[in-house]
Write a structure and sequence with these properties.
alpha+beta; 2 domains; six-stranded mixed β-barrel; 15 helices
Amino acid sequence: MSIFYNVRLGIVDMLHNIGRTLITMLGIILGTMSIIAVLAIVNGGREQSLKWLEERGGVLKLSIHPKRSFDLETREEVAQKRLTLKDMRLIRRYFPDLQYFSPRISKWMGLKYKENVYNCQLSGIYPEYQNAENFFVDKGRFISEFDIQEASKVVVLGTKTKSELFLTEPALGRNVTIGSTNFTVIGIMENKEMFVSGWSHNALEWMNRRAFIPLTTIVKKLYGEEPLSSIDFQVTSAEVVKPTQERLSKFLLALRDGKEIFEVRANSDRLADIEKRSSKSQIIFLLIGGISLIVGGIVITNVMLASVKERLREIGVRMAVGAKRKDILIQFLVQALLVSFIGGAIGILFGLSLLTILGKFLQSPIAANFQMILIAIILAFGVGLFAGIFPAINASRSDPIKILRYE
C-alpha cells in the first residue's frame, strides 16, 4: 500500500477522534512553543552582543593596551613603561599592512562654554579613529591630516558633550575652552545608542560623553610628551587577525626586553566567547524545552497504544484480506508522525506569534530565524518517530486469527 494511502487513513482517524487528537498534540505544541521561545531569547542575546561588538569596531579590530594588573609593584612598572610615540612609529613601520592606525591619548578634562562647564574624556586621536572605532562624525567634519600636521586647536564633540555645553545653541564654529586654550568646534559625532535588556539607560552613552582633538595638539599645546592610552587599528581580513595579534605580542615583548607590559586585544576573541556562550545556552535551553517534547511523546505512545487496542478488529480484517505486517506498522507510524508534525507546526506558529509579547514581558531582545524553526520541527518529528515505533510494532505483530476470534 502506498504511503499516501496510509497518510489518508491517519488523517481520517485523526478527524474521527478530534478530541483525542488535540489532547495528543498538546504536549508537542507546548514543547515546540517552549523551544521556539528559548532559542529566540538566546539568539536575541547573541545578536545584541554582536551589535555591541560591531559598535566597538567590529571583528577586524585589534588594540594595544597596558596590561591590567592588581600588583602594586607591577602597576608602577607599567606606569613607567607606557606606550610612547616612538613605539607607535616603530609599530607602524614594521606593520605597514595595518589599516586605520589610530593611537590615542585620553584625559579627563573640563570643557567650558560661557558659564557651562562639562567634564568629559578628551582624546587626542588621528583621523583614522573613525574607521578603527566605527564611530563617525554626523555634522561638520572630523580631525584631518592637516590638523595633525599643524597641531590645530580644533575639537569634535560627542552629542552629550555638545548638549551639556551648548544646550540648544548651535555649536559648529563656536569656541570652547580646554584648560586655558580656546578650541573651535568643527564637528559633532553621530549619536550612539544601544539599549540592553534590564538596563533603563543607553549602554553606549559613554561614547557620546567624549570630545576629540588632534593627537599632536594634546602633546604640543596641552600636556607635552604623554604616554599613549592605546593604539587601535583594523586588519585586512578575519584570516590575519590571529597571526597579526601573535606577531604584535612578540614585537611588544621585544620592545620591553621580554617583559609583558602590554597586551594585544582582539575583538574576534570576544566574538568567539559570544559564540561559545550562545552554543552552551542553546544546548541547556534545548534540553529544558525537550522535556516538554518528551512528555508529549509519552502521551503519543499511550494514546497510540490505546488506539491499537481499540482498532484490533480493523487490524485483523486488514491482515486477513492481505495487508502485510509492514503495512500495519507504516499505518500507525505515519499516524504518530502526522500528530507530531502538525502539533509541531502549530507550536511553531503559536511560538512565533507570542515572541513580541514575550520580549516586552521579559524586557529582553528576541530574534527568530529559520534555523530555530528547523530545529523545532526536526525535534517534534523525531519525538513522533520514536513515540510511534513501539505502538506501531505492537500493532504489526498482532495475530489476525486470534484478533478476529477474540472480537
